[in-house]
Design goal:
This protein is α+β, with helices and mostly antiparallel strands. Helices cover 15% and strands 34% of the residues. The longest helix has 19 residues. The chain starts with 5 loop residues before the first helix and ends with a helix. The model has no long low-confidence stretch (mean pLDDT 96).
Length: 633
């Protein structure tokens, strides 16, 4: 067995966006590094035979960011995005399998956001912003680039590429709306088009509408408004005509989890097809018949077919099943999945299972010593069923305890821990287990995998029952002799960072805390974060809701900063627009004011996720050093 190093973590590569050829014989995917060393993330487009007869092979050779492989209907061509000619500006390229030739098929100055090969072999639908005008380029050269909010905001528009002539046309449809997603009807009919009023992440997702567009005649039909944050379009035929489905947040709250919505196109009858289910849909995937639905189901994943009577389970999978792809008839699927001790790889097989692994992207981890991981099931103080994971120190069993315990809270809060390998660049269980810690990964209420009511329960109540859910799990591990009550730590990023900051303002039980890009003031986040109104749904109010105190003040960690005695490590990306840096500055100034031991680290050029290799290494090493200083494993 070999010891796990930080380099093992940040120098890995991961498969992304697998795409099965329509004939089911080949699969194309993107291989992406975990970290970035330069200005661009260099990725690879790879091909692998689905019969597993040969190892995957690189399909292209240039240094570039390559993404979004899409197959032609005859399985002879892969269309994909690449910035090989102009780094940072992606164009659509065509890989012809018979010759191996790769050619650029677009030269759009603004770059291509997405593409969809259509049933007509000479047509590809594109999503792209308007090309800059001569005046735009002159203003950029002269630095006459003042931004007037609401004017000339970027919009992705539907465009059509004629592969025979190379011409790109822009149909005059959908006004000034921002196009988000396209899906053609399986019989080659019209496109379903999802649009928003704008590309702003706060406003846009709440303004979605569905349309039909006929690429032959240019005719359009407005199908009406859709739920917030709609995505994952899928067509299917029914006895009453064509149906069009999508995932969206369950109304009326913006924090209520996702549901599958089914629109009968002719009658315009809309139904929630997953209401009342104790699991949460994460993907809706089109086939020639009934669509497939991926469900987060507790710590694991369920794959179902959406029949007229409701979802019918086809197979169940440990951990996660991500980036589903299928052949048109849906008789073969591909997806990303792994195990407790193996990272995600591309797997293929029938939707009823089992799935076969056809890639091995992290052979360097073979033989690496990892901590034993096991699921936890317990009940909250009010009797609600909860789950989570426990990872023990490497080479130890529960009977060897008690151990120093670090609780790592997931983000979201509409996210979850699944029973998969817990090894990432951010503070993760296996990284700490190699240093002698037991790690608790709780799934408190508000998260994904237990249905609508479970997710909705934290709206306006963050830090309340979800906090006691976490404490109950910690107390259970103390009672079982796994956790040393005198050596407890807590950590988390984003919403998990909020919970870490909240915890140390509620109790002195923790000897050390880590807050990575955490929320400390919900009112400020609603005003400045890129998902403001979603955050307002969590915090319960905004700063413009009249004279305070406001409901969000009672659930903001900054309100309790005067109680904090626990040493806190604060980490944040300088260019984070999701949870802006000001949140951590606020916490740092409060801790400095009250004389609390803490360390504040800002990572230049980084957003909500840390991407640069040296910064990821710093996060890993600094995390273990911090907890080692206070918990002494």
């Amino acid at each position: 067995m070999t010891d796990l190093t930080a380099e093992h973590v940040v120098d890995g590569r991961a498969p992304q966006t697998p795409a099965l050829a329509p004939n089911g014989k080949l699969l194309c995917y993107v291989l992406a590094p975990t970290s970035r060393t330069g200005d661009h993330l260099d990725t690879e487009l790879r091909l692998v035979d689905t019969d597993g007869a040969a190892a995957s092979r690189r399909a292209t050779t240039d240094t570039a960011t390559e993404s979004r492989p899409r197959w032609s209907a005859d399985s002879g061509t892969v269309f994909f995005r690449s910035d090989r000619a102009d780094r940072g500006t992606s164009q659509v390229h065509r890989l012809t399998l018979a010759s191996g030739a790769v050619t650029a098929v677009t030269h759009w100055r603004a770059g291509i956001i997405d593409h969809l090969p259509l049933a007509d072999p000479d047509l590809v639908a594109l999503l792209a912003q308007d090309e800059p005008t001569e005046q735009d380029m002159r203003r950029a050269r002269d630095r006459d680039d003042a931004v007037v909010v609401g004017e000339r905001e970027p919009r992705a528009r539907l465009r059509l590429l004629d592969l025979h002539t190379g011409q790109v046309t822009t149909p005059a449809v959908f006004g000034d709306r921002h196009v988000v997603e396209l899906r053609q009807r399986p019989d080659g009919g019209p496109l379903a088009v999802l649009t928003q009023a704008g590309s702003d992440h706060d406003y846009g997702p709440r303004t979605g509408r569905l349309h039909l567009f006929d690429p032959t005649t240019g005719a359009t039909v407005d199908l009406g408004a859709v739920g917030a944050d709609a995505r994952s379009l899928a067509w299917w035929p029914g006895e009453d005509g064509w149906h069009l489905g999508y995932l969206a947040l369950t109304p009326p709250s913006l924090q209520a989890g996702t549901a599958v919505f089914d629109l009968a196109v002719d009658s315009r009858v809309l139904r929630n097809r997953t209401s009342g289910l104790p699991m949460c849909p994460t993907e809706l995937h089109q086939t020639d018949t009934a669509p497939l639905v991926v469900f987060a189901d507790g710590l694991n994943t369920t794959l179902a077919r959406l029949e007229p009577t409701g979802p019918t389970t086809l197979s169940q999978h440990p951990g996660r099943l991500d980036d589903l792809t299928t052949t048109p008839a849906g008789e073969q699927i591909g997806a990303l999945t792994g195990t407790r001790y193996e990272p995600a790889n591309v797997h293929v097989g029938p939707p009823t299972g089992p799935l076969r692994k056809i890639t091995d992207t992290r052979p360097e981890l073979n033989g690496t010593a990892l901590g034993t991981q096991r699921p936890l099931a317990y009940r909250a103080a009010d009797g609600l069923d909860l789950d989570g994971l426990l990872v023990l120190p490497v080479g130890r069993t529960a009977s060897d305890g008690p151990f120093p315990l670090v609780t790592i809270v997931h983000g979201g809060p509409y996210d979850r821990y699944a029973d998969r390998l817990q090894l990432f660049w951010f503070p993760s269980a296996q990284w700490l287990a190699t240093a002698g810690y037991a790690v608790f990964l709780p799934n408190p209420r508000g998260g994904q995998g237990h249905g609508h009511r479970f997710a909705l329960s934290v709206a306006g109540r963050v830090g309340q029952e979800e906090w006691t859910d976490i404490l109950t799990g910690i107390d259970l591990l103390v009672t079982e002799g796994v956790a040393d009550p005198d050596r407890l730590g807590i950590a988390g990023g984003s919403h998990g960072g909020f919970m870490s900051a909240w915890a140390v303002g509620q109790t002195d039980r923790f000897r050390a805390a880590l807050v990575l890009a955490g929320v400390v003031d919900w009112g400020m986040l609603a005003a400045t974060g890129e998902h403001g109104q979603f955050e307002a749904a969590l915090g319960g109010s905004t700063g413009w809701s009249g004279i305070g105190p406001h409901p969000h003040d009672a659930v903001s960690p900054i309100s309790f900063a005067g109680r904090i005695r626990t040493p806190v490590l604060i980490l944040h990306g300088a260019e984070d627009t999701n949870v802006p840096l000001g949140q951590s500055v606020y916490l740092h100034r409060a801790l400095r004011h009250f004389g609390v031991e803490h360390e504040f680290v800002i990572y230049p050029r980084e957003g909500h996720s840390i991407r640069e290799r040296h910064h990821q290494l710093d996060v890993l090493h600094r995390t273990r050093t911090w907890f080692g200083r206070w918990l002494r494993p």
